[in-house]
Design brief:
Layout lengths: L1 E3 L2 E3 L16 H16 L8 H15 L6 E4 L2 H11 L5 E5 L4 H8 L6 E5 L11 E5 L11 H5 L5 E5 L16 E5 L11 E5 L42 H15 L3 H18 L9 E4 L4 H7 L5 E3 L2 E5 L6 H11 L2
Parallel strand pairs: 4-5, 4-6, 6-7, 7-8
Antiparallel strand pairs: 1-2, 3-9, 8-9, 10-12, 11-12
């Protein structure tokens, strides 16, 4: 067991794989277990989950710097991005980063309708000649950060940001972006199956997956027509995966109350210490990609959990990571 930022974690030594799957605090895991026990014994009721969905929505809003009425609930990132892609006018030019995560780029690439999607080097993306720019704030492959200030200066372009590899360790204030999407199961430490999208009120989207949960009166709209959807971003909601939101309400609620600059300093400080041990420059990111020969195999042999990516290994440093984890990884890759 480890203690970090006021929470306990049952995470093993050498776990540097949060960019794939985050390990929940005990409080969140216990809440999910209790909800599952109620399901198992027939005690739980569907209406019991309204509160946790609301709490998780509000916490995500706080973490990305918007009001909760701008946040829609989904199950994963790509369907939420798909709403923006489907609303992109025919003939539009879309720019994405080279090697961008597929959930960001694919929904635009399959639109056809004369929409062109161009891959641009990340450092040049804010200057791209495009009607839409879609990009992860932190690149999944190697942890590079996009220049948010430069993107914010764009006045004639729709900007969609994916914070899946950023929210939870990087302080964010993204109320200026047209759409901000994020999944729950990395640095937000919730069970996979919940995602959110913050949208600007003037971004016109069609709720292609319209359902009873998105209605103004959800429990009074389970049958019959016409659909009267919520006037806020809740009108874009997908019906939530209940038990995922139980964990999300606990984890995100806790994260939203932390000093996010101290969280960033902890995660990035460990990543930069690891970089320094390998003779790499500091990068200001909690994700490190290394191409040391046989890196993935050497890390695994040393008991370090990492991910094979891009011909090397990806390591990621989280709230519960320690200097001992860094030393173990360096020992595996040194010499």
């Amino acid at each position: 067991m480890r203690e970090a930022f006021g929470q306990s974690f049952d995470v093993g030594d050498g776990y540097l794989n949060t960019a794939s799957v985050g390990v929940p605090p005990r409080q969140a895991a216990d809440a999910v277990s209790a909800a599952l026990q109620e399901w198992r014994t027939g005690v739980g009721r569907a209406t019991d989950f309204d509160g946790v969905v609301t709490r998780a929505r509000a916490a995500f809003a706080e973490l990305v710097g918007v009001s909760a009425d701008r946040v829609a609930v989904g199950g994963s990132v790509s369907p939420l991005v798909g709403l923006v892609a489907a609303a992109t006018p025919a003939g539009s030019r879309v720019a994405v980063a080279e090697g961008e995560f597929a959930s960001v780029s694919f929904p635009f690439a399959v639109q056809q309708r004369g929409i062109t999607v161009t891959e641009v080097p990340l450092e040049r993306l804010p200057e791209a000649d495009a009607d839409v720019i879609a990009v992860s704030v932190v690149q999944s492959l190697d942890g590079r950060l996009v220049d948010l200030d430069a993107l914010r200066a764009r006045r004639d372009t729709t900007v969609l940001l994916d914070v899946t590899q950023a929210a939870g360790w990087l302080p964010l204030s993204l109320d200026w972006a047209d759409a901000v999407v994020g999944a729950c199961y990395k640095w937000l430490f919730a069970p996979r199956g919940a995602a959110w999208m913050a949208v600007r009120p003037d971004l016109e989207l069609v709720p292609h997956a319209a359902n009873w949960y998105a209605a103004e009166d959800a429990w009074g709209s389970t049958s019959g027509l016409p659909p009267v959807l919520a006037a806020t971003a809740r009108g874009l909601d997908a019906s939530p995966a209940w038990y995922c939101h139980v964990g999300a309400a606990e984890s995100l609620g806790w994260l939203a109350e932390l000093d996010r600059e101290k969280v960033r300093e902890h995660c990035v400080g460990l990543a930069d210490r690891f970089r320094a041990g390998l003779g790499l420059e500091q990068a200001g990111s909690a994700i490190v990609h290394v191409t040391v020969p046989d890196a993935a195999a050497r890390l695994a042999e040393a008991g370090v959990a990492a991910t094979t990516r891009g011909g090397g290994a990806r390591l990621s440093f989280a709230l519960y990571s320690t200097e001992e984890d860094v030393d173990r990884a360096l020992g595996a890759l040194s010499g």
